[in-house]
Amino acid sequence: QELESLIAEENALRGGYSTPQTLTNRDRCRVAQLALLDGPFADLGDGGCYGDLFCKALKTYNMLCFGIYRLRDFNSSTPSQCTKRFVIANPPYEFELVPTDWIFCLMQYDHNAGQSRASLSHSSHSSYASSKKSSSVHSLPATANRQNRPKSRDSREKQNRKEMVYR
């Protein structure tokens, strides 16, 4: 209710202060989809191999690729309106890429933090919600449940002692 009144009065949300704790929470990776149709990997999208893409993404952008999201009818001779896709997890090095592929990868949560030697193209900064077809990076929400994990070795030992007491 307080949030609703703040939004109604000020018509905006303001960010809070960045503390060391919040900055530490943001130092993580996210799952993303890279479109091979445009962006920094477009040169590998037409006949390139997955291994070259994997190495380029890792060395240049600090991204870890782990799968391909491919159109079901990518090689039919007639252009189809089929939008069904399937996942190819951990393809071999020589696996051939096609321009309509999307690549699943892990990338630094702050996309500017991982760019050491090169920068992503302007189209890679667009969000998933704004335009699925024209952007080359699509973010997916993280689903990991971090609340139940002990944070340190001491807290793990405490958790183990609690479990032993209850047994």
Describe the protein in words.
The chain has a domain at 27-111: Alpha-Beta Plaits (2-Layer Sandwich), CATH 3.30.70. Helix content is 25%, strand content 19%. It is built from four helices and five strands; from the N terminus they run H-H-E-H-E-E-E-E-H. The chain has a five-stranded antiparallel β-sheet, with helices on one face. The model is unreliable at 114-136, 138-152 and 162-167 (pLDDT under 50).
- Radius of gyration (CA) equals 21 Å
Query: How would you spell out the order of helices and strands?
Result: HHEHEEEEH
Main sheet summary: 5 strands, antiparallel
**What's the assembly state of these chains?**
single chain
First-last Cα distance: 43 Å
- The name of the CATH architecture of the domain at 27-111 is 2-Layer Sandwich
Number of helices: 4
Strand content: 15-25%
Q: Helices and strands: which structural class?
A: alpha+beta
Order of strands, main sheet, comes to: 3-2-4-1-5
Task: Please state the overall shape, judged from the principal axes of the Cα atoms.
Answer: elongated
Number of strands: 5
CATH C-level class of the domain at 27-111 is: Alpha Beta
* Arithmetic mean of pLDDT: 70
CATH topology name of the domain at 27-111, in short, is: Alpha-Beta Plaits
Low-confidence stretches: 114-136, 138-152, 162-167
